């Protein structure tokens, strides 16, 4: 039995705020680390995800702005749902590294837009591809830029269970 795809579930439920929240929360439950940041998917399609983060006290640093690591969580969440929406069931992905630039204080709600720098080939060989994540504040100013390198590889063949 296979689990439903993020993209398929998104396409069924994204027409309303509760539906978008439900899909976002399903990802939180699959990766509970994201629960405190509580990012919400705004738009999702193969090769692109838009995800928001509310500026609330649980993501604040000692300055009362969005903590740098909360921004990293937002970037990774946006990249993850974008990778899930893009990667065919014949392949899998895993992050291999992340480079982050903190460009300005984040004192509003945030919007992360994740895209692939170059479309993955999804060939028979493993490949490393970069996802670019631009995080902007409520004024449209870029406050964080992340490049996340993913390893995309074919899924190993499943060995049937023997009786």
Mind explaining what this structure looks like?
Strand 1 (40-45) and strand 2 form a beta hairpin. The longest helix has 19 residues, at 68-86. The chain has a single domain, classed as Hotdog Thioesterase (Thiol Ester Dehydrase, Chain A, Roll), CATH 3.10.129. It has 163 residues and is of the alpha+beta class. The protein is globular, with a radius of gyration of 16 Å. It is built from 3 helices and 6 strands. It has a 6-stranded antiparallel sheet. The chain has helices at 6-13, 17-30, 68-86, and strands spanning 40-45, 48-53, 91-102, 110-116, 127-136, 142-154. The mean pLDDT is 91. The protein is 25% helix and 33% strand. It starts with 5 loop residues before the first helix and ends in a 9-residue tail after the last strand. Helix 1 runs antiparallel to helix 2 (17-30). It comes from Actinomycetospora lemnae. InterPro entries: DUF4442, HotDog_dom_sf.
Major sheet characteristics: 6 strands, antiparallel
Strand content: 25-35%
Global structural class: alpha+beta
CATH class: Alpha Beta
The mean pLDDT is 91
Q: How many beta-strand segments?
A: 6
Radius of gyration: 16 Å
Enumerate the spans where pLDDT stays under 50 for 5 or more consecutive residues: none
User: Which H/E pattern describes the elements?
Assistant: HHEEHEEEE
Protein name: Hotdog fold domain-containing protein
Organism: Actinomycetospora lemnae
């Amino acid at each position: 039995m296979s689990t439903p795809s993020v993209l398929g579930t998104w396409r069924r439920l994204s027409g309303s705020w509760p539906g978008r929240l439900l899909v976002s929360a399903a990802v939180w439950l699959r990766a509970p680390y994201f629960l405190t940041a509580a990012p919400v998917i705004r738009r999702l399609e193969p090769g692109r995800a838009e995800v928001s983060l509310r500026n609330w006290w649980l993501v604040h640093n000692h300055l009362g702005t969005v903590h740098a690591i909360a921004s990293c969580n937002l970037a990774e969440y946006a990249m993850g749902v974008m990778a899930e929406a893009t990667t065919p069931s014949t392949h899998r992905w895993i992050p291999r590294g992340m480079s982050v630039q903190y460009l300005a204080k984040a004192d509003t709600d945030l919007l992360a837009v994740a895209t692939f720098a170059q479309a993955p080939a999804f060939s028979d060989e493993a490949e490393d591809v970069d996802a670019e994540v631009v995080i902007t504040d409520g004024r449209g100013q870029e406050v964080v830029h992340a490049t996340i390198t993913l390893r995309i590889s074919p899924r190993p063949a499943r060995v049937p269970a023997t009786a």
